[in-house]
Specification:
Helix content: 40-55%
Radius of gyration: 39 Å
Strand order of the largest sheet: 1-2
């Protein structure tokens, strides 16, 4: 009789192995989770009866302007502060630190001196429960992020194996066709020779180029076409000299207009303040940057945001370049006096014989910055968006109506020109905006 295996026995063994491996997995998971749970319980115990989630909201709205959890800003780092001081003392300090210092409390006086005598804002409106929530948040363990990429976020490229395979198959088919054509040609020649057919070339034929060279009319027409097309392309090339549309240089300190003007909504004229009152918009002083970055020493955005194109480490390193340039010590929260000039690369540069006044366009005419500079709130790296040619400027003067409502600067001249042209809307061209002397010295 033919013997067969004991399937019941085999299935039982397989089931037993799966159950055994699952038991080991659950046991190891429980062992790994136990220390984490103990650590969480210890952190909660040390923080007191507080809600870390509510504490985070309070911290971001009240404390984040001067404090960080793991780095010194205007005030000290606050991670684990509940373990450094008595809770009752913290209540008094947060409610009114100045009063505690005046009372002569040794700890308060020492802490005040260690932070460059910076007076902490009092928060008498916070209850002890609110403070417990904040302390619970500051007592949470720091989460270490592993495997971060300091470079730009680059999309993964698809593998080219399938394309190479298709290309190889096409080459193989082509080779087979060539071989088949050679064999067919050889077979036909043999058949012709067997039947006495002569397949040699008959007579002397004239090549195409010889026939073309003998036709003087075609040669003349071709010469004229080549001269005209050559002049057209030469004119196009010469007209592009000095036109730097799309120029996008790399700056010594990376500045993302996409994040600052786009995500954070910072007005262009906050940084380029001289555009309101001066001929030029000016390069913002680094002190303008420090108005915000004195308390923003690292990038806090998410790489998943549509405004972010590089990693957190990349942006934080660029902020450090700013600190090195102005001589700012973020640990001591003070200037060192050691500065380094930043050699910015100019992007928009008109010829010397062209006059353009930013204040006249921005303050008087009310032209938006994006009209000439493009949607800068979408630029990660600043570039020249428009050609800035004379024709481009003249077209704008011919098409743009001058805003005269409530503008005393244009009231008298508008009334006179409106009667002259018989219209109520005047363009810059109607008011002399296309005269040579308006833009050229």
């Amino acid at each position: 009789m033919k013997k067969v295996g004991n399937h019941t026995s085999f299935s039982r063994i397989l089931f037993f192995c799966l159950a055994l491996s699952l038991s080991f997995s659950l046991a190891s998971f429980a062992q790994d989770a136990a220390p984490a749970a103990d650590a969480g319980q210890e952190a909660t115990a040390s923080a007191g009866a507080g809600d870390p989630k509510k504490g985070k909201e309070l911290f971001n709205s009240l404390c984040a302007a001067c404090h960080k959890l793991d780095a010194k800003m205007t005030g000290p780092a606050l991670r684990g502060v509940a373990d450094k001081h008595d809770r009752e003392w913290l209540y008094k300090w947060i409610h009114n630190s100045s009063e505690l210092i005046k009372s002569g409390d040794a700890t308060a006086v020492k802490l005040f001196a260690e932070n460059n005598n910076q007076v902490m804002t009092p928060f008498p409106q916070l209850s002890t429960g609110d403070i417990d929530d904040i302390l619970a948040y500051t007592s949470e363990p720091k989460i270490e992020v592993k495997g971060s990429n300091p470079g730009p976020v680059v999309a993964a490229q698809e593998s080219g194996a399938s394309n190479n395979l298709i290309l190889g198959a096409l080459v193989l088919v082509l080779l087979v066709l060539i071989v088949m054509l050679v064999l067919v040609n050889s077979t036909l020649r043999k058949v012709a020779a067997a039947n006495g057919v002569d397949v040699s070339k008959k007579g002397n034929t004239i090549s195409f180029w010889q026939a073309y060279a003998r036709n003087q009319f075609l040669v003349l027409v071709t010469t004229i076409l080549l001269l005209l097309s050559g002049a057209y392309f030469l004119y196009g090339y010469l007209m592009q000299i000095g036109v730097d549309q799309g120029y996008e240089p790399i700056q010594p300190i990376h500045f993302s207009h996409k994040i600052h003007a786009g995500e954070n909504g910072i007005d262009c004229k906050y940084c380029h303040s001289s555009a309101r009152v001066s001929k030029t918009s000016g390069i913002p002083s680094l002190n303008v940057c420090m108005n915000c970055h004195k308390n923003i020493s690292e990038f806090t955005g998410s790489k998943d945001s549509t405004y972010v194109e590089y990693s957190k480490e990349f942006y934080t390193a660029e902020i450090q370049k700013l600190y090195d340039a102005v001589g700012w010590d973020k640990s001591a929260q003070q200037y060192t006096g050691k500065t380094k000039p930043v050699k910015w690369v100019r992007i928009h540069n008109l010829p010397d014989f062209v006059y353009f006044n930013h204040s006249q366009h921005v303050s008087v005419a009310g032209v938006e910055c994006q009209t000439c500079h493009g949607p800068v709130e979408t630029f990660e790296i600043m570039k020249q968006n428009a050609p800035l040619t004379m024709g481009w400027c003249i077209n704008c003067h011919r098409e743009t109506n001058v805003k005269v409502e409530g503008n005393d600067y244009y009231k008298k001249i508008h009334d006179e020109l409106a009667k002259k042209y018989g219209v109520q809307k005047l363009t810059a061209a109607n008011m002399g905006g296309t005269e040579c002397g308006k833009c050229h010295y």
